[in-house]
Amino acid sequence: MNNKILYQMIFKRKSFHLFRCETFPITEEEINDIYNFFTSITPLVENIKTEIKIIKAEDSGCRVGNQYTIMFYSENKDNYLTNIGYLGEILDLYLVSQNIGTLWYGLGKTNEKTYHNLEFVIMMGISKVHPDSFRKDMFKAIRKPLEQIWINDYLPISNIVRFAPSAVNNQPWTVENIDNCLYVYRNHKGRLFGILPSKFSFFFTRIDMGIFLAFLEICLNYEKISFKREIFVDEKKVDKALVAKYYLQ
Ligand SMILES: Cc1cc2nc3c(=O)[nH]c(=O)nc-3n(C[C@H](O)[C@H](O)[C@H](O)COP(=O)(O)O)c2cc1C
Hints:
Layout: H1 3-12, E1 23-24, H2 28-40, E2 50-56, E3 68-74, H3 80-97, E4 100-105, E5 114-115, E6 118-129, H4 146-149, E7 150-151, H5 158-161, E8 173-178, E9 181-187, H6 198-222, E10 227-231, E11 240-248
The chain binds flavin mononucleotide.
The site of flavin mononucleotide has 18 residues, from strand 4 and helix 6.
């Protein structure tokens, strides 16, 4: 899919927590298109097998007024959560371009813990909605101020990437711009996970980071800022983990 369309969808997307708006049936053809689009995405990390399975909401652990639920499965390898976040966010933006509203649903439980020998990771509820039901003004969405997530010189993308979605709106990312290289960190101690065991924060913040990297790359591509990226293994429960470096050219 055209990067410009994905970029535009950043402004339109929002979470449909309860799909309280009017919804319309998703056709079988659209379901096939979702499968095809997912397999067409270049993953963040090569050599990690992933698959999605689209099931009826009533057969899934996500019943918030959605018609279907997308189940994400992956091989369990280094950075597999970050990779699923990245793939899932690109899929999210594609779905929005098709007027399909989405909800990443970390709370969802499932009995189908494996599929084709892959491990269940997370689910996403979806329903077709009217174009008017999407976000009208992204800048009104609640997010941390720019100075809290971006250190040193700002780029045109800085104020856009901060609108990436995250579990409990935790926004665990910080970016440091040093000599035209973006150092992207995951901050494990989320302000919002509060009293929940740290395994939750460790699980979700890694998915969130993949989501954020998808936003970052879509924005860099849109601004025609070419880059080389280096991804680091993020599998340790440390307070601050370097997830990626983007060398801007
Ligand atoms: C990994 C992940 C898991 C999430 N899980 C849930 C969930 O279980 N229930 C829910 O209502 N929203 C969930 N959300 C949605 C977030 O609350 C939402 O993305 C965030 O508050 C930002 O709002 P926005 O998506 O409308 O911009 C999840 C989001 C992400 C990225």
